[in-house]
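PROTEIN DESIGN WORKSHEET
SECTION A - STRUCTURE
LENGTH: 425
TOKENS:
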């Protein structure tokens, strides 16, 4: 049963890029089974994948049946769309591990319980593992012309640098995924990012050529930050959904630090809040931007969904303590709470016995990678931009064992927002 207009839901959330004519009419006429493919080359999805996860979530909430396709087969090939170089191919053992991890993350968003529109996960390795080369060439390759494949932007953009036949064939493989799901699972719609349009419509063409069938396509815009930098990354790297890769604290901070120019778009895409509620928060935000009400509302909702309400509470407490003025408050955190607040790339281990034998410049640039060079570290110290345990320090500071919290930790602050942890062992 259709609960609300899916396309209209995407429109007001700024999540609609292109669709094949007739798609909206189909979605308003009947419950539709649709799918989105996910790349299994890592054991965690990242916030960049959340656009498509939210697309499936809205799709299901509107009364349609979502399928998440994890590309166990295509992960062995690598999708060239939007890439400047060929991806590394993975073996089956690594892929199966990655798929299992991603499934657990998808289950936090989609409803896999019984029901007509319960979510489903499929793995294209299941239908490709016994597909011989000769069968593929006969049953799939002859249906799509080289001219058709050559004209795609994903191919044209890679020709100058060189493109392997493996990459060139990717759109046929993805196209066959759509055909297989159309024929065996009743899938009528494939969705994805706008960079996937060429691959998706290859599937609709294959369905038309092989069985004279009709299928549909819909894409979402690629998110771009207002300052031109790539969405989904921070100064310290990718933001992952796995707490082992990106701590709940850092995950919460990613959304909390969203620029005012971006957060209005983000809350529409990544929140389940309705239009009126979002517009009300925006109105309050404009009256007092320094309170960052939009950022807080978004960070709270997304962190609780991806991790847990308990992780959100801890992230908020750690935020209050870490960005507060008092080191006495920081002392309230246990050793495990302190380490949970810092990811691996913000944590540096040093030998306790050697701590007092190095100067602060060496500690910041050689014993750790907080600064890329001694010169950069010295310059920061001279400009009063470094704090240890909430106290500004100069180039004359000498590390001491007495400064270690819990006889183990030094809190390093670089500028206003960047925190690092020295662990003395």
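SECTION B - SEQUENCE
RESIDUE ASSIGNMENT:
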């Amino acid at each position: 049963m259709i609960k609300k207009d899916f396309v209209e839901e995407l429109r007001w959330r700024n999540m609609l890029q292109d669709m094949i004519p007739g798609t909206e009419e189909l979605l308003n006429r009947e419950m539709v089974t649709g799918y989105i493919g996910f790349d299994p080359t890592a054991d965690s999805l990242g916030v960049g994948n959340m656009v498509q996860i939210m697309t499936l979530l809205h799709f299901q909430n509107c009364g349609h049946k979502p399928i998440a396709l994890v590309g166990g087969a295509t992960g062995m090939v690598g999708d060239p769309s939007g890439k400047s170089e060929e991806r590394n191919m993975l073996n089956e053992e690594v892929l199966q591990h990655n798929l299992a991890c991603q499934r657990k993350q998808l289950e936090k968003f989609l409803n896999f319980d019984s029901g007509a529109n319960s979510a489903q996960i499929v793995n294209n390795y299941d239908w490709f593992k016994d597909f011989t080369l000769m069968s593929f060439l006969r049953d799939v390759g002859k249906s799509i012309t080289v001219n058709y494949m050559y004209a795609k932007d994903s191919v044209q953009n890679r020709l100058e640098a060189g493109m392997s036949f493996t990459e060139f064939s990717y759109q046929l493989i993805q196209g066959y995924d759509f055909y297989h799901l159309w024929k065996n699972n009743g899938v009528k719609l494939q969705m994805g990012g706008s960079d996937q349009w060429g691959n998706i419509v290859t599937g609709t063409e294959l369905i038309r050529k092989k069985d004279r069938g009709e299928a549909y396509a819909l894409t979402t815009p690629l998110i771009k930050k207002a300052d031109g930098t790539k969405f989904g990354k921070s100064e310290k790297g990718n933001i992952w959904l796995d707490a082992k890769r990106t701590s709940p604290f850092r995950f919460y901070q990613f959304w909390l630090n969203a620029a005012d120019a971006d957060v209005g778009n983000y809350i529409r895409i990544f929140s389940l809040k309705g239009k009126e509620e979002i517009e009300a928060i925006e109105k309050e935000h404009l009256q007092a931007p320094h309170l960052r009400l939009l950022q807080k509302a978004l960070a709270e909702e997304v962190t609780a969904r991806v991790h847990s309400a308990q992780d959100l509470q801890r992230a908020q407490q750690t935020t209050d303590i870490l960005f507060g003025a008092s080191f006495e408050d920081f002392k309230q955190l246990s050793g495990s709470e302190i380490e949970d607040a810092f990811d691996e790339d913000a944590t540096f281990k040093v030998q306790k016995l050697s701590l007092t034998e190095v100067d602060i410049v060496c500690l910041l640039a050689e014993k750790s990678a907080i600064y890329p060079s001694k010169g950069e570290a010295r310059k920061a110290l001279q400009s009063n931009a470094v704090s240890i345990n909430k106290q500004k320090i100069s180039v004359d500071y000498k590390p001491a064992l007495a400064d270690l919290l819990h006889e183990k930790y030094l809190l390093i602050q670089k500028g206003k927002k960047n925190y690092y942890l020295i662990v003395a062992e």
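SECTION C - NOTES
The chain has three domains: 6-220, 224-323, 328-425.
The longest strand covers residues 187-193.
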